[in-house]
Design a protein that fits this description.
Blueprint: H1 2-18, E1 31-35, H2 42-58, E2 62-66, H3 73-81, E3 88-93, H4 94-103, E4 113-121, E5 125-129, H5 138-147, E6 153-156, H6 162-174, E7 179-182, H7 186-194, E8 200-203, E9 211-216, E10 244-250, H8 255-269, H9 272-280, H10 290-309
Parallel strand pairs: 1-2, 1-3, 6-7, 6-8
Antiparallel strand pairs: 3-10, 4-10, 5-8, 5-9
Organism: Desulfovibrio litoralis DSM 11393
Keywords: Receptor, Signal
Protein name: Tripartite-type tricarboxylate transporter, receptor component TctC
Length: about 325
């Protein structure tokens, strides 16, 4: 009988070492969050108050590791190449993830990732010069662009970027013939619009007083910029391309760890401390659960594929 119980105990111990760690065992050490964007940028700035609250729930330290470049690809690759144990996460945007999967030559797809949740969104908008533009409203801009085919210029932050996709949606919906002018970064777009070197730009930097938003890529108006109408309310709901700041993990990490992270994220984003801080920083807090974010990205890729099929935007060549 003693031998039986010893054998049974040995079996149980061996089985436990083979099974994934359960929720109570995770996390046991520091979690590295790979930031695919520049340190101190909007994605990181908005995440810091959320991360502070997540650490309280998790009972573990989280550290940010900046790995910017190539439209988010460098950081995304680094996070995916790490051991899928739940101790390396990815901080990026839903818009970047969709553009990488849908337009770039990458070695991963949406199935390689699992969404933990979103915590804020950027106010993506069609912008004009705040004081000297020849048009003041979206209607005036569209009318002028149609009367002057091929002459109106719109600034974007690089080819195949989130801004490029947003511009393609605008072009396809209104049947426009405009010139897209790629820049290295968001500040350059704002500078070109604000100085009058280009007619308009796609930007999230609406706090910059040299530019003015005339239409926003969202279903509802942004509470931080309530005077800017949306393309949806103008009768073009298809011109909607958000840029949710979000946290991701490899889809190969234990399911129990995903559950723990999602619960901590939900609690952190909705905490009074996070909401108050994000509001003071002028971020629009739109929380999407992991499942909601996964579904949104699949819809976005399908929408992007249609633009590619119509020839509105051309993907990176093989």
């Amino acid at each position: 009988m003693k031998m039986f119980f010893k054998s049974l105990l040995l079996f149980i111990v061996t089985l436990c070492t083979l099974l994934p760690a359960n929720a109570a065992d995770y996390p046991k050490r520091t979690i590295t969050v790979v930031n695919a964007w520049l340190p101190g940028g909007q994605v990181e700035l908005a995440f810091r108050p959320v991360m502070d609250e997540m650490m309280k729930s998790l009972g573990a330290t989280m550290v940010l590791s900046p790995n910017a470049g190539a439209g988010g690809l460098i950081g995304t690759n680094k996070a995916l190449q790490a051991k899928p144990d739940g101790y390396t996460l990815l901080l990026t945007t839903e818009g970047s993830m969709v553009s990488l999967v849908g337009l770039r030559n990458v070695r991963f797809g949406l199935d390689d990732w699992v969404s933990i949740g979103s915590y804020a969104t950027g106010p993506l908008s069609l912008c004009i010069n705040a004081s000297e533009s020849r048009f003041k409203t979206l209607e005036e801009f569209i009318a002028y662009a149609k009367e002057n085919k091929g002459k109106v210029s719109i600034g974007i932050t690089g080819k195949l970027s989130i801004n490029h996709i947003a511009a393609a949606l605008l072009i396809e919906a209104y049947g426009l013939d405009v010139r897209l002018v790629p820049f290295d970064g968001a500040l350059q777009v704002v500078g070109a619009v604000g100085s009058g070197h280009i007619d308009a730009g796609i930007s999230e930097m609406l706090y910059n007083t040299s530019i003015k938003g005339i239409a926003m890529y969202s279903k509802e108006r942004n509470p931080n910029f309530p005077d800017i109408p949306t393309f949806t309310e103008k009768g073009y709901p298809q011109v909607n391309w958000g840029n949710h700041f979000a946290l991701y993990a490899s889809s190969k990490i234990p399911k129990e760890s995903v559950t723990v992270l999602r619960e901590a994220m939900t609690k952190a984003v909705n905490s009074p401390t996070s909401l108050d801080t994000l509001q003071k920083l002028h971020f629009n807090t739109i929380f999407l659960s992991g499942d909601e974010l996964d579904a949104l990205m699949r819809d976005r890729v399908a929408q992007l594929n249609k633009l590619v099929e119509k020839g509105v935007i051309e993907p990176e060549k093989q």
